[in-house]
Amino acid sequence: MSDIKSIINEEIMTTVANYPQFGDRLRSISEVGDASVPAYPFKFENTSFNEVNYYFDTEEDEYIVMVNNVDVHAGVWEMQFGTVGGTPDDVVDKGNMYQVLSTILEITNDFIDRFRPNILRFKPSKKKEEDKYNEKTGRKKNVDPNQRFNLYMEFIKKNMRQDYSISKYGDYIVFERKIKSNVPKI
Questions:
Q1: Which segment of 19-23, 24-28, 135-139, 142-146 scores lowest on mean pLDDT?
Q2: pTM to 2 decimals?
Q3: Domain ranges of the chain
Q4: Do the beta carbons of residue 154 and residue 173 sit within 8 Å?
Q5: 126 class by beta-carbon count within 10 Å (0-12 exposed, 13-18 middle, 19+ buried)
Q6: 46 burial level (CB within 10 Å; 0-12, 13-18, 19+)
Q7: CATH of domain 34-177
């Protein structure tokens, strides 16, 4: 399937992109949204010395973003989010993905401003096997298990602040502070 897409993209780029009315504008189209979609309003709650929560509501659901300190001395925090009453592994898919991602990005920036972590890691949920079936046709969808991870990674890379680098480590997206503080000396 990806071969067909690459052939089609190549055909478009070699024929249509050379027309004067398109030119470089066609080459600059980005498939991953930017953070220009407004974020939902959110609330901050400092639960304890090693846990903070953020809350926001969409038109359909209430969300919670939990950030836990997993290594106090090294400044490592872990973030996860999901709907209130659900789990972080639940996949909602209600069509407001970019607004939710913009909100998560705003929350991440707020958290970084408040706590200045050396590392913040985030593990996007994957679609479960039962989510891979089309209910209307009864057939299995061809779903890349890393699709959500790749989407989040590209969105974050495109929109994240410059004082943190973004990388992949296993199933995690890792935000790493470029100039670290409070790192224990050996």
A1: 24-28
A2: 0.69
A3: 1-30, 34-177
A4: no
A5: middle
A6: exposed
A7: 3.40.630
